[in-house]
Amino acid sequence: MAKVGDEEDEGEQDLAAVRAASQLPTPAASSSKEQKASTPTESTEHMMSPLASEILLLRELELAPVMMHPQQVSRATEIRLFLSRIEFIAIHEMVEREEGVVYFVLDVYRFRQQKGLPSTRRSRKLSAGQPVTPQNRGPDYQIEQRYSSFARLRSNVAHIARKHHPKCRPCAYCVGLLDFLHVAPCKPSLKVKFTTTTEERKHILSAFINELLYVAREDYTTCPRSLRGYHIIPALVKRFLSEQTGESFFS
């Protein structure tokens, strides 16, 4: 009986040894559910090879939210984006300030859903003709300008468009601006100032600034970057339309 008992004790010891060996950690990975339930992240990374840890880290970064910052744009791009956001400019009112100085109130409307830059002049003329005041909404902001400010803007743009061209050959961009400034009937000239009524001047100035805005922001790629007109003309129009408003480009 003692011998049989000894054999049973030895069998139990062997069985315990086998069970202990089976419970030792093996290189084979357990199921994902067991890893999530029982194995902490730190011990998992400790048991992984450096390459496996790097792969796991990259996967976690792919799923993590990333903060995006706006890229810095050039001054010329910023100005043209500002102009491209303007849909229409209307003039309905006039106000009188100190010493009887009269100002025209410009109602500036921006595009509600801007998709790229505005269409070309040809497609605009073939579509709905001249732009009209947007309906069922008020202007995005207002500015006040004197009649002399319109005339000065026209003179400054024409001066820049004529100057600093190689071999005295204006580019297509400046030629288009000069044709509009000198040929268009709607322009702030001395004749218009003294031979028209107040209501007529509102219509003329509104047509002038809308057309100048369109011409200044279109076909600018035909003007070489080395010329002053490429940078200064859109800047003059932007300054005129953002003066006295406190409006910033990204507001």
Describe this structure in words.
By secondary structure, the chain is mainly alpha-helical. It has a domain at 80-242: PX Domain, CATH 3.30.1520. The chain is built from eleven helices and three strands. It has helices spanning 2-22, 32-38, 41-47, 50-63, 75-84, 121-127, 147-162, 172-183, 190-195, 198-217, 228-242; strands at residues 86-96, 102-110, 141-145. It has a three-stranded antiparallel β-sheet. Helix 5 crosses helix 11 (228-242), helix 7 packs antiparallel against helix 11 (228-242) and helix 8 (172-183) runs antiparallel to helix 10.
Helix and strand layout, with pairings?
Blueprint: H1 2-22, H2 32-38, H3 41-47, H4 50-63, H5 75-84, E1 86-96, E2 102-110, H6 121-127, E3 141-145, H7 147-162, H8 172-183, H9 190-195, H10 198-217, H11 228-242
Antiparallel strand pairs: 1-2, 2-3
